[in-house]
Amino acid sequence: MKNNKMIKDIVKFVFGLFAMGLGVALVTKSQLGTSSITSVPYVISMISPLSLGLLVLLTCAFFLLIQIVILKKDFQKKQYLQLIVGPIFGLFVDLGMYLFNFVNPTSYIVKVIALLLGCIVLAYGIYLQISAKVIINPAEGLVIVIAQKLGKEFGIVKIIFDFTLIFIALAISLYSLGSVQGVREGTIISAFLVGYIIRIFNRIAQHVRNKKLEVQEAITS
To answer: Largest alpha-carbon pair distance within the chain?
Structure first.
């Protein structure tokens, strides 16, 4: 039974990572700005010789380092595996871009629809990763650590975290490039919506669990 549960959790985690890749791809294909998670490395890539892929990996490593600093001895060694999530996630993003190659919206309304669908898929992928309780990508891992330390709901901390990244990206862009680059309305919309949608998924899951418990209690009573 324990092995079966572990296999199910791993499958859920991988599928969640795949869904995240599809979600990021859709947000990108909307042509309304990059996602909040990639906003900082994307802007830095414009002013440095380093590639976006390398900067994303460095950012993931930085997020992991912050987790270690916050948790100290409570940091679980298995969470070092977060470092391998970055390359796998990148592959799923590339796969998503390939699968959605046909998505090239020209009208603004279609762009918004693609953005909203991307936010929903991305949020669902993050929700699956968290509920799998295996390992998680470093960005979401840091949000979980902060949420636990502050005693706040993950979705709320996620929104604040994403907007913090956007503000950092804006500051770097304005200071180094003299204008706003890499951040558009879609970046801001996704930063708010993804965290909010995750909260909805969590509440739906909790409602389903409560209903199952009620049914089990009714059967056994």
So the answer is: 69
pLDDT in tens, the chain (221 residues): 567 778 888 888 889 989 988 988 888 888 887 778 878 887 888 888 877 667 877 888 899 999 999 998 888 888 888 888 877 877 888 888 888 888 888 899 999 999 999 999 999 998 898 888 878 788 888 998 999 889 988 878 888 998 899 999 999 999 988 888 878 888 888 888 887 898 888 888 887 888 777 777 667 66
Burial pattern 130-159, b for ≥16 Cβ within 10 A else e, equals: bebebbbbbbbbbbbbbbeeeeeebbbbbb
Can you spell out the DSSP letters for the chain? -HHHHHHHHHHHHHHHHHHHHHHHHHHHHTTS---HHHHHHHHHHHHSSS-HHHHHHHHHHHHHHHHHHHHGGGS-GGGGGHHHHHHHHHHHHHHHHHHTTT----SHHHHHHHHHHHHHHHHHHHHHHHHHTS---HHHHHHHHHHHHHT--HHHHHHHHHHHHHHHHHHHHHHHHSS--S--HHHHHHHHHHHHHHHHHHHHHHHHHHHHHHHHHHHH-
